[in-house]
Fold this protein.
Amino acid sequence: MVEGGCGVQNVNRVLDRLLGPLNGPLEPARSLPFWLCFLVVVTLLAVLPNFLSRYELLNFSNIFSNVFLALGLCLIWGYSGILSLGQSAFLGLGGYAYGIVGINFIETHGDTWLALAVGLGFPVLVAAVLGWIMFYGRLKGVYVAILMLVVTLLIETFLNQTAGQGWFIGEAHLGGNNGLGRFSGVVSKPPSLTLSFGESLVIFKGSSLAFYYLVITLGVVAYLGLRWLVNARFGQVLAGIREDPERTEALGYDIRLAQLAVFCLAALLSAISGVLYVSWGNFITPNVFGVFYNILPVIWVAVAGRRSLTAAALGCIGLVWLSQWLALQGDLAFVVLGTILVLAMLLKPEGVLIGLGEAIGRLFDRLGIGRNPRCADDG
Amino acid sequence: MTHFTTSGRARRLCAGLCLATTAVALGAALPAQADDGPIKICVIDDASGDFAPAVIPKTMGAALAVEQINAAGGVLGRELELIHYDGQSDVRRHQEFAQKCILDDEANVVMAGYTSSEREAARAVASENGTIFWHNNQGEGGIADKHSFFTGPIPEQQILTGIKYMIEKYGPKMYVLAADYGFGQVSALWTKAAAGLYGGEIVGEEFIPLGNSEYSSTIQNVQQAKPDFMVHYLVGANQGQFYPQAQAAGLEIPAVSTVNLQQGFEHLRFSPPALQDLYVPVAYIEEVGQVADSAKSFNEAIRAKFPDIEYVNQPARSAYIAVNLMADAWEKAGSTDTDATIKALESGLSFDAPEGRVFLDPATHHLTMDMRMAQVQEDHSIVFVHDFGPIEPWWLRKLGVNLVRENDGKQFLPWDDPDFAPYKSE
Amino acid sequence: MDTLTDVASFLYQYADTIATLVLSAIGLIIIFGMMGVINMAHGEMMMIGAYTTSFSYYAGVPTPIAIALGGLGAALAGVVLERLVVRRFYGQLLSSLVATWGVSLILSQGALLVFGSLIRSVPTPFGSIALGDVSFSIYRLFLFLAGLALILGVWALLRFTRFGLDVRATMQDPTMARALGVDTKRIYAFTFGLGTGLAGLAGGLLALTSTIGPFYGQSYTPQAFITVVVGGGAELISGLLASALSLGAVKTIFTSHYNILMGQVAMLVFALVVIRFMPAGISEWIARRRLRSGRG
């Protein structure tokens, strides 16, 4: 058995070499069985629409579009040790910026490339300013979290009162609590992503197949890209900052710059979720800046396991689906969801999916598949 | 001791709704029903979260109507089926479940929304898919849309009547406190117009952010302005904190509100005399049963079906009316086809509502309804001090809206009306 | 409008704001500041206090005892919560956040399902006094004094009692404390119970001048966290005091000069500035100053 196990171990070593940083040690899910599962899941996702009703397709697109928010939070919290209680603020800023520019230019431009660029760029700009304030001010730990909470509450307070006649940005009326473009004048709803590629024009309506595949493709690319990033040199610096900032700095790394960069990247990921959300439903209200929506991603990532991008992505999808399903069952939903959260944290404080992954790993080890610790010794 | 006996109620309601919802979820797996299956009415009402207290009776109003109609043989020989989803006081849930109602359950009508943001979230989905939508709450008015219908009172029914009454009773000077969002801002503009129309004078105006719960500065500002009465557009539990604080600080100025009592039955929840001399122009509150027999029997019917209902509020009545009007329209149209149904809804339907006869105005999709002025007494009992009679939803028609002929598909606001120009705030 | 009234009215509003900040934050500062646990169910503890107060009051219990029962109820709930859940998360700030948020969901929606929404509020005692055009609620002034008294009480408890000594020892170095014979498990449970009890007491006190419902406490939670963080962890009590005084001043000045929105915005901006320039809170900044001037 040991021989066979080591044979598979060799396969794993080949896998490591082949995949490079994609399969680095900073992502726990990296065995051969995992990658096989990964391929199966991606294939399933690709053929899934054939088996879905129109509503299910729409709903899955909605659920999947949250993944970027979760990945971003996982990146800064799990990998870099920066918890933010205001990540949904970047989702909101991205959504609003995209919607405002989209409403103004969809007629003249015919597409939303500019809106997309602003929708992704503006939150990153805000993140850069906030990040500069926080990290160059040597802010740490829970203070970053609370500062971000304060920021998001400020934005919410401001946007809620923008229902008046004066709050137009070009054609787009901010609309206060009723939502962007839905209050004054002609209803000007934020457009769906409309992208021109040469001659052809693709409209990513929320209910369309195109939107579903866009979300899935972006999701896979973001996931793989982040895997690569966290295991590359930059990721190792981040891990160093998380474990011991002083030592990392003493080794000559500019930890402030690294923190700023990763914070901006996380904001970009949130903004992707924001643009997708607005494009999906053509609707956004200030509630995305509220406390509830800023705690949600923290819940997903913490329950699933913040030290793994895989866990964060799966946890996000699972919990968004679960809480929606629970809501359909009646008014006990919050009670049941709360119980699940408490139990999850009691049983697996490091994350349910990480715990599950370890259990599967142990099982495979016992069966002689996957990484055999005894083989690792001579490697 | 009555507080301790309430536990069973919630559980029973929950169990009932859970069962209904699960049954529906199972049913959804089957292929879409043919024309002889039940007619589906999808309501998205908050049974959890912040707004649940005011919204739970609303679901019961719809359920009562469905039960009565089914007992009388249904509509077009078909049963009505009520699908209820818990919107969880969450805008995003309203978006998601409106889609589920329309695309998955293929509901014939969607009724949703307590706050205006919840309403817009669900309404956006309904109008996108050409589904008939009802909002069964009072609101800021002005929505002119072929697929949208409204059963709650709107500014011309509440604000103009209420302000006129207060000026005549107490004098011209008023102080306006309004929640700082769409509903409050629009209501404040209507108040300015009402003041201009009836010889009133606004001596102070204050916008309160949603969620604010500290009122010591506001109370003193009001006292210093010495108004004859106050005008309140205070929304939600936090803004409700104004009342106990004002009473504690000895602020004894009568007030008119278009928000309180009729939804959140604050007069039962706040300890007397916090709301003494609050005037509310209402279409319905449970106490209308004191003056109208039809209201009394409505109260009895809903309490017989839901013995644990805390209060028969205006949303309960509004949802009840909406379901009944839909049933009439389907009968009249002879089918559940959307265009035919809208045509029937626009044919001049009326209904014997709990408070009196209501008429669905074809041109604006709002109701002509009886309005009454409720005054809260020292012990928080209610006296109806004035009967305004039926009041029409005339403002949209004044602007030339005629949805029978043309679908505007927008929300008109005071600044769209040139006659409001003198009263603009900005 | 004469100046005396203006001054009195400003001071009243200031006291009122401070009272709310102190009352909403005092339970949290024990739990967050001393134990390093983010208790997202803080608002629900205030809710439990308010509910218990209301139920007791309408069962015929005199008001002061009803409020005390509110504190006791929340303290008991806190001890149970600590035993069942929180104790697994010491030193794990963020796991405690998720677990207690779960608890918060269970308690608030559970309260709605079990008790419904007809929770009657308790009448405000004492009446009001008039000065010129304006009048003041005596009970709101009493709340200010009650807030100060609670701060003083907590300070004395930690400073002068055996329990306080054990608590401080346990929080500083649990292993050493255990070696010295302190039952740290019990101390943890008691401290958490003290924090939630204070939250419940605050909930009960505020219940006499507000409307209560299942989500009653949640509106206090964000400002409680902000107050605690602005105060900082170096010296809990002086930090809380400094934080409430400064945040309250900013809020009151901007509210009375402009409007409530500006008051809220100014308070949040001030909090941002403090967090940025005094990352460990005002209390640490004060402590450093004191240290420096002591040396110099």
